[in-house]
Design brief:
homodimer, about 210 residues, alpha+beta, Pnp Oxidase, Chain A, ten-stranded antiparallel β-sheet
Chain lengths: ~210, ~210
C-alpha cells in the first residue's frame, strides 16, 4: 500500500496544486538541519501564488527559515481506503502536495495582508466578526511567504477504485471513503448566537 | 494561530505518543538532502515500539533511509478550530507527533511480520479476508522499521476551549470540532456482502 507506487498519479498542474492546498489547513513544515530533517506541523494558507506561514517570533524552525534555510511544506489527506483482492494491490485514495523553496519574511502592510489571507483560509469570515489585531499582537507574529515557483512543487492525487478485474466472486473489493467533517459548534458562553462565519463553514464543509 | 505557540502543549509520555500515532494513517516522511528537506506522504503503522514504513523498492526517499540517512516522521490532525475573541488568540485543537532516527531495513520473517502489523493498522482485519501475499509481492516491497527511542520523539496535543474569560457579551467564542469519518463503502462488484473488516471499521470509526 505505498501511496507513491504509481507514478502516473503525479500531476504538475498549478490548478490541481491549488485545489489540494486549499482543501487542507495543516501542513508539515520541514527544514534540513545538518543530517536530519526537522519537522513541525503548522497551519498554513494559500494567498495567490504563495503559501503563507506564521508563528511566534520565538519559534525555532521559523527562525531557521527566516535565516534563509529552504522550507519544505507537505500536505496530505486520505480520501479512502481501496480494498483490492490482495494486500499488495490494496491502496489508499489521497491528495498530497509538496512545495519547496526559500521563504520571504514579510513586514508592515504586506505582513498584515498575508496574515489576513491566512486567517480567511483557516477561519473564513472570522476576521470581520472580531476586533482587529493590535500592533503588539502583529509584532509578536512572524509572517513568512513561500512563493510557489515552477518546478518547486509536486502534487499527487489517487482517486477511484482498484483498477483491477475481479478474479474471484467472493472477495469484496471497493473503496471505503474517508471524509473530514465539522461537528456541532461548542459555545463557551450560552445565549450568543453561532456566528455567520461558522454557519457558512457548516454549509460548505470548508 | 500558530499551533506551536504554547510550549505546555508538549507531552513526553510514550502512551500519549502511541495514542496519537495509532489515531492516524498517513505521515510526512522527511530526510535531509543537502540543504533541503525532502518530504513525501506515506502510510505508516506502529508495531510495538517501532514505526513501520513500506514502499516500492524503487522509491527514492526509502532508498536514502535504507542507506543510513535519518528519517523524520511527522503526523498531525486538526480536532477543532478554537474561536476566540481575537484572531491572535484563536487557535486549533490538534494532535501531533514527530519521531526521528535511523531506520532498519527488515528482511525475511521480520519483514513479513512488520508488513502484517502495518496492514492491521491501515486495513484492520483485511489480511484474514484475502489471499496471502506472494513471495514476488513481498520481494518488491521495502519494509523499514523506525525504532521509537527515548529522546527521539515529541508529541503535542491541544484540547479544550479558548482558555479565556469573555470580555464582551456579543462575540461568540467556542470550538468548531473537526472529525474524520468513514463514508458508505462503494463496492466494485454487486452482490458480494461488505466484509467483516469494514463493518468493524464502521462500528469503531478506526
Amino acid at each position: 500500500m505505498p501511496i507513491r507506487r504509481l507514478p502516473e498519479r503525479a500531476q504538475h498542474d498549478r490548478a490541481d496544486l491549488y485545489a489540494v492546498l486549499d482543501a487542507m489547513w495543516v501542513a508539515t513544515l520541514s527544514v534540513a538541519v545538518g543530517e536530519v530533517a526537522q519537522s513541525v506541523p503548522i497551519l498554513y494558507g494559500r494567498d495567490g501564488d504563495s503559501i503563507v506561514l506564521h508563528g511566534s517570533t520565538g519559534a525555532g524552525t521559523l527562525r531557521l527559515l527566516a535565516a534563509g534555510r529552504p522550507a519544505t511544506v507537505c500536505v496530505s489527506t486520505i480520501d479512502g481506503f481501496v480494498y483490492a483482492e490482495s494486500l499488495f494491490d490494496s491502496s489508499a485514495n489521497y491528495r498530497s502536495a509538496v512545495v519547496t523553496g526559500p521563504v520571504e519574511v514579510l513586514s508592515g502592510a504586506a505582513a498584515d495582508a498575508a496574515l489576513l489571507a491566512l486567517s480567511e483560509r483557516i477561519m473564513p469570515g472570522r476576521a470581520a466578526e472580531v476586533r482587529p489585531s493590535t500592533r503588539k499582537e502583529l509584532a509578536a507574529t512572524v509572517v513568512l511567504r513561500l512563493p510557489i515557483l515552477e518546478g518547486s512543487y509536486t502534487v499527487k492525487v489517487r482517486d477511484g477504485g482498484t483498477g483491477e478485474t475481479p478474479t474471484t466472486d467472493d472477495t469484496w473489493t471497493g473503496v471505503l471513503p474517508v471524509h473530514t467533517v465539522f461537528g456541532t459548534p461548542v459555545p463557551e458562553v450560552d445565549g450568543i448566537p453561532v456566528p455567520a462565519s461558522i454557519h457558512a463553514r457548516l454549509a460548505t464543509g470548508r
